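Interim report to the steering committee. The following record documents the input for Transcriptional regulator (301 residues).
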Amino acid sequence: MNRLPSLTAVRYFAVAARWLSFTVAARELHVTQGAVSRMVQALESDLGVQLFSRNGRWISLTPAGKVYYEKVSQGLRQIEAAGTLVRKSTEEDVLSIVVNEGFATLWLVPKLPEFRSRHPDILVNLLGSDPDSAGEAAALAIRYGTPPWPGCVATRLPVSTTLGVVCSPQLQQLTRLRRPDDLVGRPLLAYTGGKRDYWKEYFEKLDLPVPDMAQSPRFPQLLMLREAALSGIGFALVPLFLVEAELEAGRLVRALPQTVEPDHAYYVTHPKGADLDERVHAFKKWLIARTKAAPKHGEKA
């Protein structure tokens, strides 16, 4: 007889797999690291297969773990979407928005109190899932890429997505880079969570050879990439508007003046033919105005 594994264990596994860290997963789940580890071990025992490779403080997904993560993530997103569809708010008008975690955590969430103060009757519910798999769970989606997207109406957000190299002030003092080719041989932090290679795009647009990054630390989330840069372990290439608070506070600095303009941008989308209500119009109007007001950065290459 087929037996379903514990949904709690599957959820703990999915969060740990997304972050590739039991410690970070424990923080998100508000439990101890040991609880996450025990749940994952119980799931592995239940399935009869190893999902993670453990190497000291670091973990990585085994081939079986990658397949399992891909499949259960889809299932968990469907469960989340189903819950959103049937959940009714008795006190507030809920507006659900699908957005990737980098844009949400580094830019949108800190600014939501401003929207809330202007529209106290609208509760924004952020869904950190793939816009293409969210279905009807959300009224709006914020996407990075290039339209068209099937079945969607897209409006470009007027925010500068300029890519620039940032690092900690201490690392800047130690290295004192002058031009982009000074980055060769330096610790470059790689972002692996998107469909595009920022460093490859940066060097190619500057007509420079793309350095070998086989030994570069890799981070699947922009939040993790930012924390790594803040810690001083290397240079990060990021859309500068996403780290504007750290740049203004001096916690991060521009390692080089040269920037590049990526081939893609952020868009707010909604399903084609959808009946947009006042909540959607209010948030979309605020989002466009707020992104337009974001600071422009740097010298173009």
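The chain has a mean pLDDT of 89. The committee is asked to note this result when reviewing the revised timeline.
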